[in-house]
Amino acid sequence: MRTAVLRGVRDVALEERPVPEPGPREVLIRVASVGVCGSDVHYYEHGRIGQYIVKQPLVLGHEASGEVVALGPGATRHSVGQRVSLEPGVPDFTCEQCRAGRYNLCPDVRFFATPPIDGAFCEYVVLHESFAHPVPESMSDDAAALLEPLSVGVWACRKGEVSPGDRVLVNGAGPIGLVAAQTALAFGATEVVATDVNPVRLRMASDLGCTDVIDVTATPLADAGYQPDVLLECSGHPGATAAAIRTVARAGRVVLVGMGGDEIGLPLSYVQDHELRLTGTFRYANTWPTAIALVHSGRVDLDRLVTSRHPLADAEAALTSGTRDPKSVKPIVRPGE
Ligand SMILES: NC(=O)c1ccc[n+]([C@@H]2O[C@H](COP(=O)([O-])OP(=O)(O)OC[C@H]3O[C@@H](n4cnc5c(N)ncnc54)[C@H](O)[C@@H]3O)[C@@H](O)[C@H]2O)c1
Ligand SMILES: [Zn+2]
User: Based on CB atoms within 10 Å of each CB, which residue in 106, 278, 293, 328 is the most buried?
Assistant: First the structure.
């Protein structure tokens, strides 16, 4: 099969590799669509993310959809031909975190496109059958792939306990902020305000239902007059994170999704005085059923995020499109093309 392989910093090449064999309870999936994530771009540009270092050739891509084409021994959940969305992190199912239901925190999770585990920029992948989620016929391949970032948004809203009538501030309207904002609306938030420095993304946030958008290059957040119950921090920008925390209402919740700076200045006295609750998030757990329902019911639009499609041979163009084009939001690689 054709595989786009990251061989070094800014070096992606097509290679022929054998089609993988599905092991026990695994299915073989022909990959249809793969979203490009900021982490893919980061590995491409720097060869590492924190402690995760690309030491051997790596296949990128972890936001994927496709079709089941073969069943491994004991795999019974799917028929050949079933279209699926791939949940790309398979935990060990037995550790303390897994047994507590927090499988996103499994220290032995095998996650696509995180060294040394290969991802989905290729024609076929194998996956545990329970992590290949069937999708409705009406859902596009691209949307089925983007259930992965949507899961990050669903998890953020759950951690922030976004509830009917809540006022929510979504800091940063990148792909993650845009799905978090749509999810917050679907969860019943009645005020969902998005910030960014990119007018194209702010327009998209508006089009997707945000009640207001703030270009923080023109209006400092402190002057915008909002006092959210929940902050979904999706910019990863340390200064913007501190500024956003300073707007949160008393007893509010702060969900730190963005991962830009390793350390940030925390406005501690504000957090204390307002008794804010802060949490980090690490990916997601048990989010696919909710994500599928949100898209199928029309509450969340993922197709709108797609700004370009690339055949596998142009995977590198997909990886660079965000830096080349400020209008780019979510490039998609189509390995069948
Ligand atoms: N915690 C997790 O499990 C998890 C999962 C996926 C992504 N992430 C992180 O979430 C963040 C968002 O992901 P993304 O794919 O949308 O990335 P992105 O870089 O496309 O989006 C960040 C957005 O923040 C905007 N921004 C920059 N400066 C700003 C400022 N001062 N104020 C407001 N907005 C500003 C950018 O213009 C951009 O639109 C990233 O940091 C990513 O690493 C975390
Ligand atoms: Zn585990």
Answer: 106
